[in-house]
Structure of Probable transaldolase:
Amino acid sequence: MKFFADTADVDEIRSLGEAGMIDGVTTNPSLIKKAGRDFRDIIADICEATPGPVSAEVTALEADAMIKEGRSLAELAGNVTVKLPLTMDGLKACRRLADDGIKVNVTLCFSANQALLAAKAGARFISPFIGRLDDIHIDGVALIQEIRTIYDNYGFETEILAASIRSANHIKDCALIGADVATAPPAVLWSLAKHPLTDKGLDAFLKDWAATGQSIL
Ligand code: E4P
């Protein structure tokens, strides 16, 4: 399973990369607002900080305008993935950009049928938002399971990129189901390494080691 960092914070991306924890990055207009810098500069910096796919989202609503924005974003770096919303215009733009060899991440997916359409439109990634479904009491992880089954039934190569992840449990559940990628905020990714028994065990080992009076080097 691949991990993407869902952030526009370049320092966090570098840190996660140094720990070998990420295979790519996703951004969205809200994350760009939070970063508070020029959009194109941020995407160029992130693409330099990570060799994996970096999703950059268009903001146009009409297909031709989305295609124009998407092509311009794709020119920023070889690892840009153009992010398009799951609308009819987004699907049209997806087909055209995919036919031109540009990788597309179709975002804001909330149903299995939407995911089916994105795959038929040639999307490289489909982003089902599981946390936002959970927020309205619909089982987000169940949606990942449905999409996995449908894509496997028909051999679609579109990768399932579980998004809107809120917890380590979300990541584990998506991994058990076979999502191809999980994109999560840095804090959730860092939390995967934490376990209280690891801390407790290490503390006890170090105390006993100190009592031996020895040093390794
Ligand atoms: C995915 O690409 C989105 O950027 C993201 O996962 C949205 O998450 P949120 O629902 O926490 O805003």
Residues 2-212 form a domain with the TIM Barrel fold (CATH 3.20.20.70). Residues 6, 26, 28, 107, 127, 129, 131-132, 163-164, 183 surround erythose-4-phosphate (CB under 6 Å). The chain has one domain: 2-212.
